[in-house]
Amino acid sequence: MNTQSDKSYALIVKKDCPTCALIEPVITRLAEIHGSTLEIYSQDDPDFPSGATNVIDDSQLEFSYKQNIEVVPTLISLENNQEQSRIYGWDKSQWQEFTGHSDLGSDLTDFKPGCGSKTQDPGMDEVLALRFGSANFSAREIDVAKSEDIMEACYDRGWSDGLPVIPPTPIRVLKMLRGTDREANEIIGNIPPDNVPCSIEKLAINAVMAGCKPEYFPVVIASVEAALQDRFCMHGLLCTTYFSSPVMIVNGPVVKQIGMNSGINALGQGNRANATIGRALQLIIRNVGGGIPGGIDRATMGNPGKYTYCFAEDESDSNWNSLAIDRGFHRNDSVISLFAGEGLQPIIDQQSRTPESLAKSIANSLRSVANSKIFGLADAILLVCPEHRRVLQEGGWDKKKLRDTLYSELATPGSEIVRGAQGIAEGMPVALKDKQLNKFRADGLHIVTVGGTAGMFSAIIGGWVASGERGSQIVSQKI
């Protein structure tokens, strides 16, 4: 800008704008009158306008970006190099009053709206933020040789879970960061197993690699905050030889806002939000925390959910409480819950038409979590399909009635499940043979509705055998 300590003007134009072309004679006249106190910034052609002096090439858009120009032409009035006011587009009377020249553009049409500034072109905001330094990244940028395949480069550097990742270019990371109002340098906590301090920026990098869209990013952040709660025991879950991995259940308005799947094939492939949010947490644990299979991750077999295990709950029936409500939240809260779970075990019951029959059927299946003779060690999530929920509700049952009945059905004499009983060495300690035992601890069975409306198939996600107060507990985090 002009550095004189008096009144001056800055005019921003582009040749590819009909309004700028219309007022070219006006610009030329103002240039003649004001001389060096009028600086003209041309976004696309340094020779436009042709008859004016003091035209500055702004094709890199630095001035336009830093002055937050949204429309061209824009005329800015300055006093001692400080902006006083601005006008944009062409309004004859407004320009005459603004400049103090009552006959300015007298032969032109009275009004013509301006055009969008080139700074408003799709994707340009992130490009300019990177170009002119308003995006301050702390992560180092890695140069990839021109001959190197960028997808293979990510894999070769150990950033992948075995599937291709999206290269985390600066623009992609910046777009992801704009999915939240959290500061990029904010430390969210220490990521296990190496307990490495992790910033929001690092979360964004891994969310990009997972394939997330920016609108998913608040859910990714909340998933990490949940995983870092002591009660979840992420470090232990990572190190165990058991099958378990984080299972994510999302509730609330955010489900529809980002298009998560709670219906047909909700636990399968095909939905970007479900797939990538779960994957992002796994990549963060791997790439930031150092949780690499064969290293600290010692799972004997693992399970496919260690790629991603994330879905939304079906909350279409307001008379049936959601998991989030069970966890103390309100229906209009967006919440993510994490459970240390294994693979999916189906429950087929296409015959039961009463809650009593269905509950007995479900209880029989629940006995097999971990082992039919191991009680009180592994929590579980019972996934109730909509058709089974309908059977329960038509019989007058709510979720509490179902849970209470399941606990009653699962109560078992210790003598039947101690070690050696039924000719099976595995089981509960013999000292418990005279006790009445329940399959799950008091807060160990969680009920979630999910799935399509056709098919009487519910399911079980068994928990880590280190569930409960001595191990991992389900945790919830408001988004």
Q: Would you give an account of this structure?
A:
With 479 residues, the protein is α+β, with helices and mostly antiparallel strands. The protein folds into two domains: 7-131, 3-Layer(aba) Sandwich (Glutaredoxin), CATH 3.40.30; 151-478, no CATH class. It is 29% helix and 20% strand. It has helices at 18-22, 24-34, 62-66, 92-99, 124-131, 150-156, 170-177, 200-210, 217-227, 234-239, 254-258, 272-287, 323-326, 355-366, 386-394, 399-410; strands at 7-13, 38-42, 55-57, 71-72, 74-79, 82-88, 90-91, 111-112, 115-116, 187-191, 196-199, 245-251, 310-312, 335-348, 380-384, 412-413, 436-437, 445-449, 457-463, 475-478. The strands form six sheets. Strands 12, 13, 14, 15, 18, 19 and 20 form a seven-stranded mixed beta sheet that branches. A five-stranded mixed beta sheet has the order 3-2-1-5-6, with helices on one face. Helix 7 packs across helix 8 (200-210), helix 8 crosses helix 12 (272-287) and helix 9 (217-227) crosses helix 12 (272-287).
